[in-house]
Amino acid sequence: MSRAVVVMAPAKINLTLEVLGRRADGYHELTSVFATIDVRDRVRVAPCKTLDVRIAPDIGAAEGEDLASRAVLALAEANGRAPFAHVRVKKRIPVAAGLGGGSSDAAAVLRALARVWHLDGQGLEAVGARVGSDVPFFASGAPYALVRGRGEQVEPLPAPAPLWIALVQLRERVSTAEVFDAYRGDGSNGARSAALARALREGAATPSVIRRCLVNDLSSP
User: Fold this and answer.
1) What is the pTM of this model?
2) Hey, which of 108, 115, 122, 142 would disulfide with 7, CB 3.0 to 4.6 Å?
3) Given 66, 105, 134, 217, which residue is catalytic?
């Protein structure tokens, strides 16, 4: 089990999340400002003669259906390789809490496996988009970003001064797909996301400015 690579996979929060409308492909068109936070999973990847993925604690996904496994398969297909890797994920990010834990794990697998397989690391965002909508953001490595489309358009943004947040974990698990299915809004114009992105670019994103921009169109569903 030589040449193992360990990568930390951060959680994220949506400082803004605006739904612009439904796309022809069935997804919703979004604009959102993502920010990584200091809650992380630990992902270890090493060469192997089979596909061996284990996640602890168990997240309840069927074998091969977790995003970490799908990341190995997607990167292997993109590079014409056998989908073999030893992957261990130690979870700390709550599951089904809107924090992107599974997507972050998948992106960490892509980054680590690119090193194990001696790839150049380019194109990981495009591969990640095939795995899940939030994966391109995590694959970009940006601490903050303006994310658009269904998640595949990622514009890294400068991080403001360090911020404290209160993160409250509920007992209930929330399915992203079910939340979007329940959304009945008329669609947003994306103004708050644009305003916050502009403030971050200009170095003017103080806590009070961020608070004024906070919005989540999926709060009701």
Assistant:
1) 0.93
2) 108
3) 134
Give which of 33, 50, 24 is closest to 216, Cα–Cα: 33
Going from the C-alpha of 55 to that of each of 65, 90, 125, 217, the distances in angstroms are: 12, 6, 23, 32
* Residue 134 annotated among the catalytic residues of the structure: yes
pLDDT digits (tens, 9 = 90+) for 4-60: 999 999 999 999 999 999 888 888 899 999 999 999 999 999 999 999 999 999 998
Given the residues 12, 41, 66, 105, select the one marked as catalytic: 12
Burial (CB < 10 A; 0-12, 13-18, 19+), residue 50, is: exposed
- The contacts of residue 104 (CB under 8 Å, 6+ apart) are 9, 10, 11, 12, 41, 93, 134, 138
CA distance 104 to 134: 8
Q: Are 132 and 106 in contact (CB under 8 A)?
A: yes
- 3-state SS, residue 145: strand
Q: In order of start, what are the domains of the chain with their CATH numbers?
A: 5-216 (3.30.230.10)
